[in-house]
C-alpha cells in the first residue's frame, strides 16, 4: 500500500493506492479557516492533529503494510514554529489579505516587478514576502519567538519525522528562490527589508527531503517523502510533465499550470515559475485566488445544495439569461494572471426574473473565463488535464470544455496525494508505472457551437474585467 497525504486549506486527506495506482481508500477531515477583517489564519495543532487522525483512520481500515508515503499540502502563507517544530502563533494562510496595503506600495514603486525579474514570482498579499514584512512591522514578537518560517507541509513533515526544519524548491519558489541557482536570492530578501530576518528562512533541499516516520499516524519507520507542495504534486498526479501540457485545478484555488523548459522573466509580471525536482524544468503557474469557493458562496447564499448544481446548470442556457459574474471573491483580491489586491467580485445583469440556475451558471461561466485567462497567460500549447473538486460535476466539466474551447482530460480522485506518492517513489527509487497512475477517467470534448458562443463571451469578460480594474481605488 502506498499512502499520499494532502494537507488542504479546508480539508486534510490521506489516500491509499495499490501498486498500479488504483485508489483503495480515502480518509478526510475538515479543518477550520478563521476569517476576520481580511485576516485568514489556521490553528497548526488542529491541522497536524487532523493529519494524524486521517492517517490513523486509513491505516486502521487496511491490512496491507505501508510501502512508502508521500506528503503534500497547501503552499504560501507563513507557518512560524519554534526549535522543536511547535507553533508560536496561528498559521497565516495564503488567503490572508492583511498585507494588501504593503503590496499596493510595492506595486506602485516597482518592487513587485523587480522581484519578478529576479525570481519569476509575482507577489500577492498571502505569500511569505509581504506577510513576513507585515509581521516584522506589526507583530515582531512572533518573529522573535520563532526559529523558522515554514510552509504547511514542512511543518507536518517535521512533526511526523522529527527531521530538521527544511523546505523544497517548489515551496521556496514564492517569492525568494532564484530559479536558475535554486537558492535564495539574498538581494530580494534585502529589497523586501527582511535581511535581519534571514535566519527564519528554512534551508532549501534541492531534492525532496526523506525521513522515517516516528509513529504518529504512520507505522514507525515508514519511508516518508516531503513535497512538492500541492500544485506541482497535482501536476505529477495528472501526468503533466511534458513541455506545453497544462493542468487546471478546479478547487478552492483555481490554478492553471503549464510545464515548461523555458524560463522567460521578460514578460508582464504575473503568476510564478515553480521549480521542480528536475533542474531546468518549471511549471508556469497562474494560481487565481478563488475557484470552487466562489460557487460555494453562491450556493450558500441562495440555499442551493451541491447535489443540485448539475440540474441547475442544465436548466438555463449559455449566457445565463444575461447574468454575468466576475468571480474575484477573495478578500485579498486577485493574484493571477495579474495582481490586484483591491479587486472584488461583481454580479451584473440580475433582475426579478433571474433564477438560482442563472446565478449558478453565471458564476460557473465566470470561473471558466478566469481559467481561460490564466491558461492563455501561462502559455498552454499542448493537452489540458483537469482535476479538483469541480470535476465531480459532469455538467460543469461540459461547460468548462465549451468555455475553454478544448478537450479536457478529467483526472478524478485524490490527484495531489497521487502525485505525492509518485514523487516519493521517484525519490526512494521505487519503480511505479507512471502512465497507469495518471490515466484520465474521462475526456470531455467541447461543443463547437457553444465554444464559438463562449469565445465571444470571453472577450466581453475581459472588457468587464478591464472596467472593474479601472474603477479600483488608486
From TrEMBL:
<keyword id="KW-0418">Kinase</keyword>
<dbReference type="Pfam" id="PF00370">
    <property type="entry name" value="FGGY_N"/>
</dbReference>
<dbReference type="InterPro" id="IPR018485">
    <property type="entry name" value="FGGY_C"/>
</dbReference>
<dbReference type="InterPro" id="IPR043129">
    <property type="entry name" value="ATPase_NBD"/>
</dbReference>
<feature type="domain" description="Carbohydrate kinase FGGY C-terminal">
    <location>
        <begin position="270"/>
        <end position="425"/>
    </location>
</feature>
<feature type="domain" description="Carbohydrate kinase FGGY N-terminal">
    <location>
        <begin position="1"/>
        <end position="202"/>
    </location>
</feature>
<dbReference type="GO" id="GO:0016301">
    <property type="term" value="F:kinase activity"/>
</dbReference>
<protein>
    <submittedName>
        <fullName>Carbohydrate kinase</fullName>
    </submittedName>
</protein>
<dbReference type="Pfam" id="PF02782">
    <property type="entry name" value="FGGY_C"/>
</dbReference>
<comment type="similarity">
    <text>Belongs to the FGGY kinase family.</text>
</comment>
<dbReference type="GO" id="GO:0005975">
    <property type="term" value="P:carbohydrate metabolic process"/>
</dbReference>
<keyword id="KW-0808">Transferase</keyword>
<dbReference type="InterPro" id="IPR050406">
    <property type="entry name" value="FGGY_Carb_Kinase"/>
</dbReference>
<dbReference type="InterPro" id="IPR000577">
    <property type="entry name" value="Carb_kinase_FGGY"/>
</dbReference>
<dbReference type="InterPro" id="IPR018484">
    <property type="entry name" value="FGGY_N"/>
</dbReference>
